[in-house]
Every structure is written in structure tokens, then in C-alpha cells.
Amino acid sequence: MKYAQIVIGPAGCGKSTYCSTIQKHGEAANRTIEVVNLDPAAEYFDYSASGDIRDLISVDDVMEDEDLKLGPNGGLVFCMQYMVENQEWLNDLVNCPGEDDYIVFDCPGQIELYTHLTVMKDFVRLLQQWKFQVCIVYVMDSHFVVDIPSYIAGMLTTLSVMMNLDVPHVSILSKIDLLSASSRNKVEQFLDPSERGLSELIDPNPWMEKHTKLMKKIAKIVDDYGFVHFMPLNITDETSITEALTFIDIRCLQFGEDEDVKTIDPPDPVDDE
Ligand SMILES: Nc1nc2c(ncn2[C@@H]2O[C@H](COP(=O)(O)OP(=O)(O)OP(=O)(O)O)[C@@H](O)[C@H]2O)c(=O)[nH]1
Ligand SMILES: [Mg+2]
């Protein structure tokens, strides 16, 4: 079996940093984790890439094409589509890296690629056809989830990606090391709410009664179904990196487990109400 983490998330959230952190962590543990750059507009990353979409096509190539007349965003989508249509090149790319078949794909930061366009779905299906066990690692900057409404909004974005891509999934909260102590406490509270759940953390707002009610309902659904699993990642703390990688390996990829056991546990059943 082969394993693939597809690392996605908004621009600047820390995807490339996550990839290099995981690769270095693997090296220290004597484990080979290949990283492939799939961002055709990438300018800087500090991992050692065993493959790079820019060897096939780059956004600059596309934007210079006088027939296509595409800007940076359209150009990027074009590059991704071009890549999945070039299956032979892609197959060589995923077969090329070293002996171990554990690949982390560093993807672009354009959210539409994951929420409603089909190109990443096509990419996932190709990897599955090539016998990869695939999971999505959705990176989210923890600074954007330090209050309850944004935390819930973050969950909903993650949920829409989950529904579009339809493979095991974890959300990594990045840049935890940069949070103030009070913001870190808040995030910890959201991640591990009391038994009464996330919905109880929402303060009533008399000026936005309807809005508060809606948020409580959404939070209740999130509580009940446990749809989205957020995992904090502090890249300065080896224990935190180990915890994140272990969660992904075991819960999302079944890496290192018996070949027979390949299913993810369904969420706990809830009553219809
Ligand atoms: N301290 C700290 N800095 C981080 C962390 N994650 C990312 N950064 C910094 O945030 C900036 C953006 O990080 P990248 O890893 O390039 O983000 P990205 O998601 O790959 O960005 P795009 O590819 O442009 O979408 C860089 O300056 C990183 O050094 C983190 O967990 N801790
Ligand atoms: Mg990047």
C-alpha cells in the first residue's frame, strides 16, 4: 500500500511549513517522508522536494501564453487541470520518489480548488486508482479561530472541503506557537469544550438574536456528529508534531496497520432528533 497526505488550505496558512516540519520530523525518526510540490506558483519552500509541478508547468508559463489570456488565479486552475490530464507524467512523479511510498503533497492556497472545482477530486481519484491510501490535511491558521463565530466558520469551510473531496480528513491548526497565552487558552477550550459542548460557549447577543440562534444550532450539529477534527500543531514542540502525525497515520491513513484493516470508524451514532 502507498500513502498520501494532500495538504491544502488558504493562502499563507502554513502548508509548506507543515510539509517541511513533517519531513524533518521523519528524518529525525529515520523515516522517509517524501514531499512533492504541487503549487505551480510556489516561490519558496524549505523542504527537499522529490517532485515539482513546475517541472511540468508553471503559472508564469500559462500567463505568458497569448492565446490563453489568463491571470494568476485562472492560470493556477489551468495548471492543476493540465497536471491531472497528464496522467503519465503524474504517474511517473508519484512512482519516482525514494523507496518509501509515503508522500506529502504541498498544494496551492486557492480555496475554490477544494470547495467546488473537480480538479482536486480527480487528483484524489487518480491516487486511489494507483493504490494510494489518501487523506486530506486541511491547514488553518489558528489566529483566525480564536473566537467562537470564526471557529464555527472555520469548521464549516472544512466541512465543505470534506464533502467535496470525500476522503478521511483532519484539520491542522497552525501557528499555535505565535498565539498569545489568552488566545491559546480560548482555542484549547473550543477544542475540548465541556460536556455540554461548543454550543454552550456561545454568548447570547440581544442585538443579533437570530444569528446567535443559528450559530447555536450549527454548533449543536457539529457537537453531535463530530464531523470535523481539529488538531493543534505547535511546530516548536516535538510532542505536538508527533501527536499530529500519529493521528494522521493511524486515524486517517491506517499507516503501518494490518493490510486487512482499511476502514475508518464511522462517527458515533446519534438519534434522529
Ligand atoms: N511561527 C510559525 N510560523 C509559521 C507557521 N506556519 C507558517 N509560518 C510562517 O507563515 C508564513 C507562511 O507560511 P507558508 O508555510 O509559506 O504558508 P503556505 O500555506 O504554504 O502559503 P502559500 O503556499 O503561499 O499559500 C511563513 O513566513 C512561515 O514561516 C507556524 O506554525 N509557526
Ligand atoms: Mg506554500
Automatic annotation (TrEMBL):
It comes from the Eukaryota. Pfam families: ATP_bind_1. Keywords: GTP-binding, Hydrolase, Nucleotide-binding. InterPro entries: Gpn, Gpn3, P-loop_NTPase. GO terms for molecular function: GTP binding; GTPase activity. Small GTPase required for proper localization of RNA polymerase II (RNAPII). May act at an RNAP assembly step prior to nuclear import. Small GTPase required for proper nuclear import of RNA polymerase II and III (RNAPII and RNAPIII). May act at an RNAP assembly step prior to nuclear import. Belongs to the GPN-loop GTPase family. Binds to RNA polymerase II (RNAPII). This is GPN-loop GTPase 3. It comes from Artemia franciscana.
